[in-house]
Specification:
mainly alpha; 6 helices; single chain; rod-shaped
Length: 115
């Protein structure tokens, strides 16, 4: 009889009454559904939030790159010396009567191959 009485006491406890409550069970089911089962669950929401943050960082990077390129373009259009410097450095342009020697930095080359 002691097992029966202890089982009855367990069923009569406040915790079990709360757990067996239909409102508690429906709320618990709803929370589990929203957090794990639904197509827009918490895990997917967190992954999407990380994607949005990464895209925002990429957006800021490209806006800064566009701004720098616009500044360079403005400088090239306004100053002929800078245009000549750009053509010589980027495309190895030279005048008809001059020779160009390209000296590469061996330190940069080693660090690029190490990566």
């Amino acid at each position: 009889m002691s097992v029966k009485s202890s089982f009855k006491r367990l069923l009569d406890s406040k915790i079990v009454k709360v757990i067996r409550n239909k409102y508690f069970l429906s709320t618990l089911f709803f929370i589990v559904w929203i957090l794990f089962i639904d197509t827009n669950n918490l895990i997917k929401w967190y992954a999407d939030l990380k994607d949005v943050a990464a895209q925002e960082r990429q957006k800021r990077y490209y806006k800064e790159a566009i701004r720098e390129t616009d500044e360079q373009l403005k400088e090239l259009h306004s100053n002929l010396d800078s245009l000549e410097k750009f053509a010589r450095e980027q495309y190895y342009f030279h005048k008809a009567d001059e020779e160009i020697f390209i000296v590469e930095d061996s330190y940069k080359k080693k660090s690029e191959t190490a990566e």
